[in-house]
Design goal:
By secondary structure, this protein is mostly helical. Helix content is 70%, strand content 0%. The chain is globular.
């Protein structure tokens, strides 16, 4: 996760909104509300930005783990 080290947030706080958006098919605003209830103040536009920036990287990582797991 070399691309995440230049951001001020921890990799977990970058990964969580993206995975909520993708895995549970939530809207951007639903992710915003869900995280706000848990004390994470994030805008839906930030979730969208992170999805466009890190989504392909997370998808390739998931595919890699699926291929390794089937062997």
């Amino acid at each position: 996760m070399f691309a995440l080290r230049y951001f001020k947030r921890s990799p977990e706080t970058i990964r969580l909104p993206v995975m909520l958006y993708v895995c549970f098919s939530l809207s951007l605003r639903n992710v915003e509300v869900l995280l706000h209830e848990r004390g994470v103040d994030i805008c839906h536009e930030t979730v969208r930005f992170r999805w466009h920036r890190f989504g392909p990287m997370f998808a390739s990582e998931i595919r890699k783990h699926r291929v390794e797991g089937t062997r």
